[in-house]
């Protein structure tokens, strides 16, 4: 039996263990705590290493790497986006990620991030709405009822006090699935047969569709004054959800402008169109919503710092949890220069 060094075992959080963690903490509480962790990191934004994510595009999708560091801890996520996967019975978005110690470069944790991405995306959306949505917003339209949708609905309930969610998807089966999953979770769930019907009386409009094209999920005449739009699905070059005229009427808030200008709804605008960085609203460096008639738009694409916050949150919950397996993924010989000797000794041990 070849035995790895105990020092270099890396905790791995599987999908199964992530589900146990969500069930143990509760999805709503976990997203509220993730939002707190993300806000704490957004408040120290300037000290992070920041770069637009590294994207490898193909005709039907994208594979991306999302790195960042706060100088003490480093994190990255691998994530894909393949809207046509669903027809093959596969997820549109899957992900995994890693945290590492900057002082040694050794990994601290490897984790599934398909579930964690849905949780952190919803937590970030609701966090943005906490700062930008009209006061007293209680009803949200949820357009696109796929994998992310229940997470979005529950995060807005937990963080923004939403009481009603109005569902619409071009595929009625997706709406039925979402309504079924949300039943009994404390929201008034209203399935609708058009985007217009879903938006009736809603103060918050979330678009979370998947299609690799310049789609027009919302046209200008559908959007009244004073609403908050949480645009989640447009997150790649050539993949948007809102008509350009809506953007021209909105105050636009983004995560990291150099990335959002490539990937977000604002790829449709001039490169110098003014936008506000969300972290600046949180620190008070920039205003959020100015008045009740303003349309605020969170042009969400997903930024590395949110994944970093989410990975650190999970890591902080692992001790004594039993919710991880140790992986032998770092070669760590007793004498650091005797890497080859480690193989020879292992061979001799195996032969004995
Ligand atoms: P999914 O494929 O599970 O669901 C997408 C849903 O959109 C499907 O049910 C589909 O029928 C519906 N849809 C497509 N076109 C529509 C239209 N014109 N009107 C109404 N509904 C329509 O995908 P998902 O995992 O829920 O992800 C949704 C989107 O969010 C994707 O585009 C994904 O890339 C994006 N996303 C963004 C972030 C972020 O941080 N901003 C994070 C994760 C995912």
Cα shape? globular
Structural class: alpha/beta
CATH topology of the largest domain: Rossmann fold
Number of domains: 2
Number of helices: 11
The SSE order reads EHHEEEEEHEHEHEHEEEEHEHEHEHEH
**Radius of gyration, Cα only, in angstroms?**
22 Å
Mean pLDDT score: 96
Bound molecules: nicotinamide-adenine-dinucleotide
Uncertain residue ranges? none
The spatial strand order of the largest sheet comes to: 9-8-7-10-12-16-14-15
Please report which band the strand proportion falls in: under 5%, 5-15%, 15-25%, 25-35%, 35-45% or over 45%.
15-25%
Fraction in helix: 25-40%
Report the strand count: 17
CATH superfamily of the largest domain: NAD(P)-binding Rossmann-like Domain
> What's the level 1 CATH class of the largest domain?
Alpha Beta
Distance between the termini: 10 Å
Structural features, described:
By secondary structure, the chain is an alpha/beta fold. It has two domains: 12-115 and 306-321, ornithine cyclodeaminase, domain 1; 122-302, 3-Layer(aba) Sandwich (Rossmann fold). 34% of the residues lie in helices and 24% in strands. The protein contains eleven helices and 17 strands. The chain has helices at residues 15-25, 27-42, 114-132, 149-160, 172-182, 195-199, 244-249, 257-263, 278-283, 304-316, 339-351; strands spanning 9-13, 54-57, 62-69, 73-81, 95-101, 107-112, 139-143, 164-168, 188-191, 204-207, 214-218, 228-231, 240-242, 250-254, 276-277, 295-299, 325-328. An eight-stranded parallel β-sheet has the order 9-8-7-10-12-16-14-15. Strand 14 (250-254), helix 8 (257-263) and strand 15 form a beta-alpha-beta unit. Helix 2 packs across helix 3 and helix 2 packs across helix 10 (304-316). The longest helix has 19 residues, at 114-132. The site of nicotinamide-adenine-dinucleotide has 28 residues, from helix 3 and strand 11.
